[in-house]
Every structure is written in C-alpha cells, then in structure tokens.
Design brief:
about 35% helix; about 190 residues; 6 strands; 2 domains; 4-stranded parallel sheet; two-stranded antiparallel sheet; 7 helices; alpha/beta
Amino acid sequence: AFDNPDLVVACVVGDGEAETGPLSAAWHSNKFLNPARDGAVLPILHLNGYKIANPTILARIPEDELRALFIGYGYEPLFVEGHDPTIMHELMATVLDDALDRIRAIQDAARHGAVALVSRPKWPMIVLRSPKGWTGPKEVDGLKTEGFWRAHQVPLSGLAENPAHLKLLEEWLKSYRPDELFDEAGAP
C-alpha cells in the first residue's frame, strides 16, 4: 500500500496468527501509512476462537476490551458477528462498504489539506466473529467439529479409506455450489 495511493489491501488475519509475536507487533504498522500519498491496509481479524488446538485470547476477551485494545493500536474496529452465512454475508458487505468509505474520507481529507484531521487517523479494521469450521461438518465420527478445535487444519482424514468422510467432504464442498460459479472448463 505504500506509495500506491489507490490501493486498498484487505488482509485477513486469524486469531491464532494474531497472537504470534511478529503479528502482534505488526498492528502498529498503520502508523507508517501516510494517507496523503499511500494506499491503505484494511485488517480483517477473523475471530473463530481457536488456534491449532487451544482457545485464543482475543476471542475470549469482552468486546469492549477488544475494541479498546484496537483503538489503542490506532484503529476504529467495526464488528461483524453471527452464525447464519446469508445474514453474515450481508452484514460483512455493509461493514466492508463502511470501512472503505472511512478509508476514502481519511485519504480525501489528507489529500486536500486537512492535515490536522488526519495526523493520526483512526483507520478502520473489521473484527469478524464466526464459528471455527463454519459451514463445514458440524460433527465428524460423533465428535463436535464446527465451533471447536477439531475444525482446524484437517477435520476429515483418511478419505481414501473412509467413504463416510469422503461423502462428508463432498457434501461440504458442494454446499458452496461450484456448479453455479464455474462452467465445465472451470472458468467463472
């Protein structure tokens, strides 16, 4: 985004990843952006509650504390939360439009001389809270998967030896309706 004034980079960060040392420090990188000449980065923090096999801290703290944390980092957090994919899609689209409008307002002010308004702008960021393994199988082999650590990485294993797992995977992938998104050659 540096030196590219028309670029907005949306960067999705998982809550487990957000707790690593390098990424924890990277939340301060917004302080290097100059809204008069640079593009912008729109962080999207995806809180689904789990890293590899443990709960995450950021998903466990109350919303007011999480909001205060990111305001302290120099962001204006916008929250999207829910379980229903259709409703969440609409909410996310609305919040994304709002975030882009806020970015443009910061940049327009800086590019038209309102430096006092944007010397330390509060860049928008999105906090997306959804279940771990969302839209995947709710259970695998009688064990809770969606909304639980088992959804991480490989929720279905042994596909060659386990026809039930293969069927679950097929149902899961078909739920995205690829036949409506791509033609026979795989083109959109």
